[in-house]
Each structure stands twice: as C-alpha cells, then as structure tokens.
C-alpha cells in the first residue's frame, strides 16, 4: 500500500493506493515478533498542518507599500490606512502604492472609477468589494485619505 498526502489550497487531501485487487485489508502475519507496544512507537507521524495563510492586508502592504510612511497597517492587520495620497495633485509613489494595494486586494474597476471621480464637495465615499470596505475622502490640499477594513 502506498499512502499519498497532498496539500492543495491549504486543504489536506489524503488517499491510499493499494497494489492488491482484494477489497479486504491485508491479514496480520502470525510470525510477527513485534508487540502492539512496539508497533505504536513505530507508527508514522501525522502529517504537519500546512502553514497558515498570510493575512491578505499584510501581504498587500509587504508587496506594494512596505517602505511607505503614508500607507500603513492597523488594527492587528484588519485595516489599511492611507493618508495624504497625491497631495496638491502631485503624482508620487504613494499613488502607485495605493493602486497596487487595491489591485492586490481585488478591488474592481468600478471602485477606481468612483475614486477617480470623487470631488472635495462629495464628502466621505465608500465602496464594498469582496471581503473589504474602502472609505475615503479627497481634497486637493489633503489628497486622498482612505481606510480599507475587513468586513
């Protein structure tokens, strides 16, 4: 018998493959000199659990804005806070980093269109996507201030 253990998408998948055509379990050998206590100590170890999935928000920050002082992780990894993005219409690295974070988290094109069309007079805006909510304000003097939270 060959045992196969696979990890797929964080799930444990196990199967056994047998050489024999018989559906009966193999018979125990009477000539075996091992006692039950010995066979317990020689049993195969249980497979290790797959590593925990990384926090997507933490992974987004690590991938897109690890060196940013304007985009930070908060609330034990359940919130991303972006402050002063694109102040005074400047195009800077923080805009690219925020876009990268949003793309990493799976934000749809509709969120980008909503964000792009936000005016100072519109006040606080909010969109939900997947398991996240993005809320933001915009003012030419302050740039975009956005909070992304886990629902």
How would you summarize the topology of this molecule?
Elements: E1 2-8, E2 11-17, H1 36-41, H2 56-64, E3 71-74, E4 79-85, H3 93-104, H4 109-116, E5 125-129, E6 132-139, E7 143-150
Antiparallel strand pairs: 1-2, 3-4, 4-7, 5-6, 6-7
Helix pairs in contact: 2-3
Number of strands: 7
- How big is the Rg? 27 Å
Distance between the termini: 47 Å
Tell me the overall shape: elongated
Determine the number of helices (DSSP H or I, runs of at least 4 residues): 4
pLDDT < 50 stretches = 1-20, 28-32
H and E order: EEHHEEHHEEE
> What's the story with the biggest beta sheet?
5 strands, antiparallel
Strand order of the largest sheet: 3-4-7-6-5
Helix content: 10-25%
Quaternary state of this entry equals single chain
Overall pLDDT level? 78
Strand content: 25-35%
Broad structural category: alpha+beta
Brief write-up:
The chain has 151 residues and is an alpha+beta fold. It is built from four helices and seven strands; from the N terminus they run ββααββααβββ. The protein has a domain at 56-150.
Could you characterize the architecture of this molecule?
The two termini are 47 Å apart. The protein has a domain at 56-150. The longest helix is centred in the middle third of the chain and has 12 residues, at 93-104. The radius of gyration is 27 Å and the shape is elongated. With 151 residues, it is α+β, with helices and mostly antiparallel strands. It has helices at 36-41, 56-64, 93-104, 109-116, and strands spanning 2-8, 11-17, 71-74, 79-85, 125-129, 132-139, 143-150.
